[in-house]
Amino acid sequence: MEFIQPQNVQEALRAFQKWGKKGMGVAGGTNLLPDLRAKKVSPGALIDLSRIESLSFIEAEGDEIRIGALTPIAEIAASKILQRKAPILCEAARKLGNPLVRNRATLGGNLAKASPAADTAVPLLALDACVEVQGAGSRKRRIPVDQFLRGPNQNALKPGELIRDIFFPPPKPGTKMAYRKMGLRNAMAISLVSLAVLLEISKGTCRQIRIAFGAVAPRPIRAYQTENILRGKEITPELLQACGNQAEKEISPITDIRGGAEYRRAMAATLLRRALGEALEMSP
Ligand SMILES: Cc1cc2nc3c(=O)[nH]c(=O)nc-3n(C[C@H](O)[C@H](O)[C@H](O)COP(=O)(O)OP(=O)(O)OC[C@H]3O[C@@H](n4cnc5c(N)ncnc54)[C@H](O)[C@@H]3O)c2cc1C
Question: Residue 123 Cα, ligand 1 centroid: separation in angstroms?
C-alpha cells in the first residue's frame, strides 16, 4: 500500500484523481485505522490529509460559521466561537470518545464515516449545516448534511472528492438549543440515542424548530413531522406530549448489542419531551 502525504488541497485532489477508487483519504485515522486492521478496507494508496493546514479552522464571518473538515474534535469542544454561537456542537464534541480520540478525530471524518450514531452529525442537522466538497478539476459542491448522509457508512461524496469545510448560519440571538446523548455509560460510549433541538420562540409561539436524532435510524435524521407539530403553535405541555408520540413513529431504531429497538424508541421520545420542556422551562 502506498502512503501519500499531500501538503495542500490541490496535491490531495491530484492524488485522488491518480488513484481513483483505490485511493482513500485518512484524517485522524480513528475510524480508518481500526477498519484497516480488521481488513474491512484495503486501499491501494492511503492519502494522508492531516498535513493540509488550510482545512483546520473555525471562523464566524458575516452570515456563516465555517469549520474546516480537518479541525480536531477537541478544538470544536473548546472553541469560544462555537460555545457562544452553537453550544450544541461543542457539547456533542465533548461527549465523543475520549481525550485521545478527540485530539486525533476530525469533524470531516465523523461526517464522512456516516455512522448512524455519528455524534457531531446530530447538532449539525439541527443547525441546518451544509458540507462543501471539492473534486476533480477543483469543482466545488455544497450539500446539506441531511443529503450528505445517505445510510450506514454511506455518504454523497463522488470518487475523488474530499470535504473542505462544514458551514451553517449562526442561530438568531435568543434561540434555545439542547443536546442529549444517552449511552451505556457516561464517557467513551457510542450513542444509544442522541438528540439535538433548536427552537425560536416569540411571544409563546414556536417560530422555528429543528429536531435531529442519532442512532435511531439508518443515518442521523431530522424529525420533520415532529417539527411540524410545534411550528407556528403556542407551546403547551399537551403539545410536548404529542411531539414525543410523533417522534416515536418517525424514527426506525434497530435492536443491537447496545439496546433494544423499543427501548430506543421510548428513550428518544422521553429525551425529546425533557429537552423541549427544559428549553421552555415547562413540565411535559
Ligand atoms: C475508541 C473510539 C471511540 C469513539 N467514540 C466515538 C463517539 O463517541 N462518537 C462518534 O461519533 N464517533 C466515535 N468514534 C469514531 C471516530 O473517532 C469519529 O467518527 C471521528 O470523528 C472520525 O474522524 P477521523 O478524522 O479519525 O476519520 P478517519 O478515520 O481518518 O476517516 C474516516 C473516514 O472518513 C474519510 N475522510 C476523513 N476525512 C475526510 C475528508 N476531509 N474528506 C473526505 N473523506 C474524509 C476517510 O477516507 C474514511 O473513510 C470513536 C472511535 C474510537 C477509535
Answer: 16
